[in-house]
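Handout, section 3.2

Students often ask what a structure token actually looks like in practice. Rather than define it abstractly, here is a full record for NAD-dependent succinate-semialdehyde dehydrogenase. The first block is the sequence as you would receive it.
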Amino acid sequence: MTVSDQVKALIHNQSFVNGEWVNALSGKTFSVINPANNELITEVPEQTQEDTSAAIAAAEAALPAWKELTAKSRSLILKRWAQLVNENLEALATILTLEQGKALVESRAEVASSANYIEWFANEAIRINGDTLPRSANGNFEYMQKLPIGVVAAITPWNFPNSMIARKVAPALAAGCTVVIKPAEDTPLSALALTHLAADAGVPAGVINVITASTGAEVGLELCKNPTVKKLSFTGSTAVGKILLEQCASTVKKLSLELGGNAPFIVFEDADLDAAVQGAIAIKFYNSGQTCICANRLLVQESIHDEFLEKYNAAINQMVQGHGLEEGVSHGPLINEKAITKVQSLVEATIKQGATVYRGGKVLPELGSNFFQFTILSDLAKDMDIFSSEIFGPVAAVYKFRDESEAVAMANDTPYGLASYLYTKDTGRIFRVSEALEYGMVGVNTPKFVSETVPFGGVKESGIGREGSVHGIDEFLEMHYVCISA
């Protein structure tokens, strides 16, 4: 089977509930659009509360048999799923690029990462251990088990529509839970394709269900309010996360929230400047700046600020914007017109507040309506709107700082606390600053630390809980204590 045949086989225009491909009960659909050229890819079901309730019921019905499987049995099914993802990597990457826009090289890396997460949690499935406990009274035998929490709701974002499914669904299934997925309206096809492969791998009917909708409000409300759902895992904006947190309160659901970021990227004067420049290129412009761990504020010590800007500008010249499936393209479009409007408005407002446009600053209509120039803004101050805004676009905001204390103060001056980065050769400074940064993750002299082995997540208003690593599966388990009196 050629890649094009695999793509056709994996693109679905129906949702997946209880092991079947289904339409919306209303019969309505909405469009999935290629952001690079605004062309229609396909239509998918416009589902509502009633459809969501049916999917939850299917997950509930499938739960007893799935959780009663041995851990080894679940592990083998997940390993087969990871294998199929790898075997279909090129097709999945093509679908991802078609609906999300990112360059094919980035899509391939994301799909490979998804397979890694699935395989990792396949192995964690057989390592869910409890404890025997000290006696609280003579004659007692006491122990603690870790049991699956139950039906899980997963609401996933458009910027990483493949790997976010794997990071949430794989540990849930490994723990013995069943899942209802609500993928982002811009990128439902990756979720449906992954679910197709999960079913082929032997995941039983009802264990994974996918609901599609052009807005998340009605579906999300049902996932939050329905008492059958015992756990919600969400990746997206802090504003939406707070709404979901409130909506889950009535049923006291367990929550994992991976929310917004405002990552500082600190470059000290003793850093390897060339390495810092390449690191800032990689983590600022990855996925055209549309990631929650992007370097949102580049904080550069004033003695090397000008040299950094020169080198950074030169490095940007090596990058190529265009349609993600075209040869040689390194960066694709933004996801939609709304994203372009947000970035353009933020740049224009920052210029009015006194910033200098070092390069770029405009849309690129010659490539398509959703492309924005690689942009560097300098002469920035903390009282400008951009300092507290998550940019989510290919715009590098560069600030000066005097010394270590000011760098830390600027970095921490935000309600967010997801990822942070620092470049220095001073060993003492590495430990001082790393500990002082109020973030869940710190990359020192590297922009690349995310993998299936890492506990991904933030502090403050950047979220609750962790994904990945040996800790990721605990988010889908409950402690169950038993005391037996002789």
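Discussion prompt for tutorial groups: The chain has two domains: 5-259+462-485, 264-444. How would you have guessed this from the sequence alone?
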